[in-house]
Amino acid sequence: MKSKKRIVLAYSGGLDTSIILKWLQENYNAEVICYTADIGQDLDRKKIVSNAKKFGVKNIIIKNLKDIFVKDYVFPMIRGHAIYEGVYLLGTSIARPLIAKDQIRVAKKYNAYAVSHGATGKGNDQIRFELGYHYFGPKIRIIAPWRIWKLKSRTDLINYAKKHGISIPRDKKGAPPFSIDDNLFHTSTEGKVLENPKNSAPEFIYQRTIAPEKAPQKATFVSINFKNGDPVGINGKKLRPSKLLEKLNQLAGKNGIGRVDLVENRFLGIKSRGVYETPGGTLLIYAHRAIESITLDKETMHKKDNIMSRYAELIYNGFWFSKERFKLQKIVDHKRNKVNGTIKLKLYKGNIIIESRVTNSKAYSLRKVSFEENKSFNKSNVEKFINFHKKKLKK
After folding, report:
1. What are 332-373's pLDDT values in tens digits?
2. Domains parsed from the chain with CATH numbers
3. Which are the catalytic amino acids?
């Protein structure tokens, strides 16, 4: 007997992907394989397995990618100081390429003819997932339910779930949940009351940061150790990437650091409002800029700053695996071997204060900058320097 064709579904075990699982089974004569990438989100393995088994799923794959996610995706992005539209640290954007890559690996392993995801038809994630699918599995079919099914709203989804006995989770107020995405780097919350930008964000939606006014009265001090441009330890203790980020999340979160309420411009042109929490990532970008300030030369730093906006936009739009992003990453990582040392930070009620910068680098010269020493810098050349550059005023 000929075996059924297979579809690999990016499955979280939650409401949306459980509905998609049932819908795929109803509309495609194929075996559905449920795939979950563990990248540090609030993950209930037993729930994922039990929910999938309710629908007769035999292959349920949960892959631990936490260290790969932080080391090969978050850290390169931190080195690029990538911030989209001035505030967004790209927590959702950077996760999708990795999930897509590994989902295609699973599809190839099981000889699946298609992959599927739960991203909505108006959002960015469908693009990020599918660009990754195309890069690693150009011949594998993509099924995007939100673009083809007859369910047009959250209300339709909830009615479908009730019809098929799919449990509907509730938020802390007893209502259907906000749209939430989380991983080791961040948590994003969208929908419901947040859709109207005039509404303030309710405090109960925050999951990993305390309100700054409720943070401890006593400051917290933390030292982040860098080697070759990446954080490698905290307070002198070496930690693997995922554990390092977990620790920074805890320290920053309890001090009210890492909250952002923004209205962003999606790749498709729609404006959307959301609340993002990136506690550890906020510390890392702050500390990384500080360590580069005393280890890199002006030209290298400014070249990185000049490309940062484009680099961030590429990540946001789903082009992590593009030639352009690879090219910009080389600029980002130029001289990263010189970025070594320790930054000590003071954390207090939502604020990050630099306490000290320590490095063996010779980029910062105390002798040259000192007001007490004038022999090593020829000030007579400054007038010539000004005269040369004043010509640019007339151009």
Report:
1. 999 999 999 999 999 999 999 999 999 999 999 887 776 555
2. 5-66+94-176 (3.40.50.620), 187-358 (3.90.1260.10)
3. 16, 96, 125, 179
